[in-house]
Design brief:
The protein has about 250 residues and is an alpha/beta fold. The protein is about 30% helix and about 15% strand. The chain has two domains: about 5-85, no CATH class; about 105-245, no CATH class. It is built from six helices and eight strands; from the N terminus they run αββαααββββααββ.
Length: about 250
């Protein structure tokens, strides 16, 4: 049995046997079809104590939901990320302990102040102040490179370090070449020079970067490098980064 199938069955049991989803009976509609692991009310997909604050956070910061709205699919990676991390975003010691498991030399975590009055130690659907990837984005979280979550730490040697987080749950990928066709030409026009200049990405063969999940990781790597290159004009001043891809 695949991990994805296991998680489908787990979600069905949680819906049937617990009150985690606030009594929602499941069998909701997703893309026009009924599934036992899909909720009837999308609000029940959020951790109850954080739900209102999460929705306010998205509205206040003009963040687009995946698919255009909060999903009722219980295996959503976006929902999983928020349910796990949002409730601790203001807990400095907890966030620091997470980062020290990745890099023990981090001695402090700093608030990410580009969330305005809702700024804390974890940011969601993070973007830069300016477009450094030639994407001409207009909406945070949609049609541009944005990070599922972001933490900002201080190294013991004084460096300010970004921790970009890509959150995965049950994703699987085919062999779609995002570098082909007219859209592929546009993507290559955006990223080719940046890949060639990258300190982390090998420039000998770019083709691999246009297949998922490498396509996402490539863009996030470039985003992080450009945050460092443009730290004089960005609100968040960055000297280094450590990329983290988390799955549950």
């Amino acid at each position: 049995m695949s991990y994805k199938t296991q998680q489908y069955e787990r979600a069905e049991k949680l819906i049937k046997n617990t009150n985690i989803f606030n009594g929602d009976k499941g069998c909701g509609l997703f893309r026009g079809k009924c599934y036992p692991f899909v909720l009837n009310d999308n609000n029940n997909n959020m951790y109850k104590k954080s739900r209102i604050s999460i929705c306010n956070y998205f509205n206040t910061n003009k963040i687009a939901w995946w698919g255009g709205k909060l999903t009722n699919h219980t295996l959503s990676s976006q929902v999983s990320c928020l349910n796990h991390l949002y409730s601790i975003r203001d807990d400095k010691n907890t966030v620091l302990s997470i980062i020290q498991n990745i890099c023990p030399d981090i001695i402090d975590v700093l608030k990410i102040t580009t969330d305005g009055d809702m700024s804390e130690y974890i940011q969601f659907e993070a973007v830069s102040d300016f477009d450094h990837l030639n994407e001409k984005y207009s909406t945070r979280g949609s049609n541009c490179t944005s990070l599922d979550a972001l933490i900002y730490g201080q190294h013991k040697d004084g460096r300010k370090v970004l921790f970009p987080i890509e959150w995965k749950y049950v994703e699987s990928y085919g062999n779609e070449d995002k570098g082909s066709g007219n859209k592929g030409l546009v993507r290559k026009a955006r990223y080719t020079d940046l890949i060639n200049q990258s300190k982390q990405l090998k420039s000998a063969c770019h083709d691999v970067y246009y297949y998922e999940p490498f396509y996402q990781l490539m863009r996030q790597t470039l985003w992080s490098e450009q945050m460092i290159a443009h730290k004089n004009t960005e609100t968040i001043k960055v000297d280094d980064y450590t990329h983290s891809c988390d799955s549950i």
